[in-house]
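Quick one: structure tokens for this chain, please?
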Amino acid sequence: MIGRREPVPFAFVAEADRFRSNVEPPPRERASFGQLAGRWLLGLTIVAGLVGALVIGMPALSLDHSTQGTQQSQASDRR
């Protein structure tokens, strides 16, 4: 008899979870103009940095064989 529970209808359990507290959290404060401008500026700076790194790094990633041939021919002309 000690470990035995009385069966409880499921609707009662769901209703108890729904009405756990009648206190609502306070509404969120709206961000000020300065905060919004700061977020936009930070996002724009991050995007500009990524785009700039991509633009600067593209020549290093490209496989341009014409410049290697020119360097070799200049070196062979000096002999």
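The chain is about 65% helix and 0% strand.
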